[in-house]
């Protein structure tokens, strides 16, 4: 079974990548200024008991290698240490943040995929016309703007019309379910739109060049010679084959989405994982930074794995 | 490929892809968009280089009111410290471009070496190097940059290195693919048969063929490096003693330029970054397209379909 082989290989790659990320994570933070003891156990206002417990938990008085093994064990139990900033377990902080981030990122990415694909196809199909010029210029424009700056521009444009910070109106007391949903919807609009527009530019360009490549293939010529309608050729012959490079490139843009989320959540004070990274950097909250980096890396690796499997589903020929 | 070459037994040599360095200039000259990009980039670089001469004011000196409006003496207004924005932009572009170019140089050296070594030697070297590249490709750049920069401390040198050592992956892969195909060309094999060593083959046969692709990649990487610098600066990880475009945006954001209504403190630096990234994308894209002959053929396009269905292959030349 070659297919099973491929799936197993991708799985092994993903597991190994996560393992390497964990190791980088461990090594990097041991290089942080100040010894590991002062770093990990430096939780402010911690009682000596907590400090001692942390020291024992992470084996901070033992050798580097033992520390590494202990770190892996603690990680397997979901223990990422305690945040310097609010003295809460990092895992709990990150869980809340991740749950907050997901809807915003999902909405923005969905917007970008839908509109980016449509515009990309139209742009390739209308090659050599004004439509192509306009779509490509627009896409390049959004692609070129620094993400956080685009967010700030939307803040300037929509200030007063839409909420520009936070996730919900804190002054709503006991709102009904629908008021709450409407409030959340209003707050999510600008951050999601920012992410959507930035990714829209990238996806349009990706889909356009993938489509242009497939439109130059001989099977498109054959399909035309058979007298098929252009819409059918576009959808069944060109787009279907263009889906392969699109899947790969969209998977590779995940790092870009993560970067976008960090910047956008900072601009809009969205209490998600990106904002957690920003706060951790500002306050030099190393355990949080370490945890957030791990969560971000693992989610990107996971999404890449999904893309790989999807790729296999789309094109069973590839078994490498 | 002539008909004579198709005689039985004759070796059909592939027409070499036109990839002499001259193609870069051709590609830029032929495309209006690339010319626009090159012009914008040229103007920005010139302005940045001549900042010590051209900048109307000192960037450490308060020359007017806080968030002063744009006026004849200050065409882009003043920032939160009453410093002339135009002068700031020129000095900021200087630092941003420096980071962009230096980080790109670092990543081109790494990516080029890995790509050439991997494609040229093949075998186990290739497997190992590409595995490493795959890991770097998957791990998200910006969070890793943030972590390293936060731990290492903010300074211009650190930022250049941090960005440089994370941006080489796509270059390595693109170069590897090209080197692999160049290695199999007949003239390389002949050179090897004549006793040329690895160094000589790489320097005088492989690199010149890969150069245009490397240039396209360099230009595109400069754009990413400048974006990353802006992002790091925005997150407070920029060199506190140097004004870069990213730093100007961060500063304006932190000092509430938006709620004060001082749009001139925040719109121009972002536009300048966007202009630099846009022109790099236009130039790099033009070179890449020129190197990819597959993009020149379209069997189906709205224009050709209506005007002259099924006439000729390169039917976009209406």
Notes on the structure:
The complex is a heterodimer of chains A (320) and B (318). Chain A has 320 residues and is an all-alpha fold. Chain A has helices at 2-30, 36-40, 48-57, 64-76, 90-125, 130-144, 147-158, 177-215, 218-225, 230-252, 254-267, 273-282, 286-314. In chain A, α7 crosses α8 and α12 (273-282) runs antiparallel to α13 (286-314). With 318 residues, chain B is mainly α. Chain B is built from 14 helices and no strands. Chain B has helices spanning 22-30, 32-49, 51-54, 85-121, 123-138, 141-152, 156-164, 169-183, 186-193, 198-234, 245-254, 257-260, 267-291, 302-307. Chain B is elongated and about 75 Å long. The two termini of chain B are 26 Å apart. Mean pLDDT of chain B is 81; it is low at 1-17 and 306-318. At the A-B interface, α1, α6, α7, α8 and α9 of A face α5, α6, α10, α11 and α13 of B.
Just give the CATH class of chain B: Mainly Alpha
Instruction: Tell the overall outline of chain A.
Output: globular
Give the overall silhouette of chain B: elongated
Topology-level CATH name of chain B: MetI-like fold
Q: What percent strand of chain B?
A: under 5%
Give the structural class of chain B: mainly alpha
* Total domain count of chain B: 1
> Structural class per helix/strand content of chain A?
mainly alpha
The multimeric state of the shown protein is heterodimer
Query: Which chains have the largest interface?
Result: A-B, 72 and 56 residues
């Amino acid at each position: 079974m070659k297919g099973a082989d491929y799936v197993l290989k991708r799985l092994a790659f993903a597991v190994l990548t996560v393992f390497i990320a964990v190791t980088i994570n461990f090594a990097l933070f041991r290089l942080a200024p100040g010894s590991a003891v002062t770093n990990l156990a430096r939780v402010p206002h911690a009682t000596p008991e907590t400090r001692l417990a942390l020291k024992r938990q992470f084996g901070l008085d033992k050798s580097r290698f033992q520390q590494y093994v202990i770190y892996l064990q603690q990680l397997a139990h979901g223990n990422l240490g305690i945040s310097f900033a609010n003295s809460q377990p990092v895992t709990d902080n990150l869980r809340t943040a991740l749950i907050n981030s997901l809807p915003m990122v999902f909405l923005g990415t969905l917007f970008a995929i839908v509109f980016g694909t449509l515009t990309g196809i139209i742009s390739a199909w209308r090659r050599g016309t004004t439509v192509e010029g306009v779509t490509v210029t627009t896409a390049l424009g959004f692609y070129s703007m620094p993400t956080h700056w685009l967010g700030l521009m939307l803040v300037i444009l929509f200030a007063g019309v839409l909420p520009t910070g936070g996730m919900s109106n804190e002054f709503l007391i006991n709102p009904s379910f629908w008021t709450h949903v409407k409030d959340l919807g209003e707050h999510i609009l600008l951050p999601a739109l920012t992410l959507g527009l930035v990714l829209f530019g990238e996806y349009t360009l990706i889909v356009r060049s993938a489509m242009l490549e497939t439109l130059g293939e001989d099977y498109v010529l054959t399909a035309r010679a058979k007298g098929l309608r252009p819409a059918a050729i576009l959808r069944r012959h060109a787009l279907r084959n263009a889906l392969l490079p699109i899947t790969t490139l969209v998977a590779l843009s995940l790092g870009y989405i993560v970067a976008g989320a960090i910047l956008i959540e900072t601009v809009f004070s969205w209490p998600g994982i990106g904002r957690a990274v920003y706060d951790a950097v500002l306050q030099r909250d190393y355990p949080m930074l370490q945890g957030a980096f791990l969560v971000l890396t693992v989610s990107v690796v996971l999404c890449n794995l999904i893309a790989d499997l999807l790729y296999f589903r789309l094109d069973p020929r590839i078994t490498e | 490929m002539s008909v004579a070459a198709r005689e039985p037994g004759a070796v059909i040599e592939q027409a070499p892809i036109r990839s002499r360095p001259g193609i870069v200039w051709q590609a830029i000259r032929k495309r209006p968009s690339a010319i626009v990009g090159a012009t914008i980039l040229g103007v920005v670089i010139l302005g940045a280089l001549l900042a010590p001469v051209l900048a109307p004011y000192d960037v450490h000196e308060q020359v007017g009111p806080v968030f002063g409006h744009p006026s004849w003496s200050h065409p882009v207004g003043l920032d939160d410290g009453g410093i002339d924005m135009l002068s700031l932009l020129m000095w900021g572009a200087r630092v941003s471009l420096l980071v962009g170019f230096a980080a790109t140089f670092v990543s081109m050296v790494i990516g080029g070496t890995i790509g050439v070594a991997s494609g040229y030697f093949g075998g186990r070297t290739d497997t190992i190097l590409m595995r490493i590249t795959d890991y770097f490709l998957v791990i998200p750049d910006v969070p890793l940059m943030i972590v390293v920069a936060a731990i290492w401390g903010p300074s211009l040198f650190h930022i250049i290195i941090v960005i440089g050592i994370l941006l080489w992956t796509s270059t390595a892969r693109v170069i590897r693919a090209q080197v692999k195909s160049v290695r199999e060309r007949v003239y390389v094999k002949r050179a090897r048969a004549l006793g040329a060593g690895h160094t000589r083959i790489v320097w005088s046969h492989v690199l010149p063929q890969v150069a245009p692709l490397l240039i396209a990649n360099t230009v595109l990487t400069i754009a990413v490096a400048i974006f990353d610098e802006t992002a790091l600066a925005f997150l407070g990880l920029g060199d506190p003693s140097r004004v870069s475009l990213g730093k100007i945006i961060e500063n304006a954001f932190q000092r509430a330029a938006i709620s004060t209504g001082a749009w001139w403190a925040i719109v121009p630096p972002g536009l300048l970054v966007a202009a630099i990234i846009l022109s790099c994308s236009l130039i790099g894209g033009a070179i890449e397209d020129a190197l990819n002959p597959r993009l020149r053929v379209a069997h189906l396009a709205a224009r050709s379909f209506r005007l002259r269905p099924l006439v000729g292959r390169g039917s976009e030349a209406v």
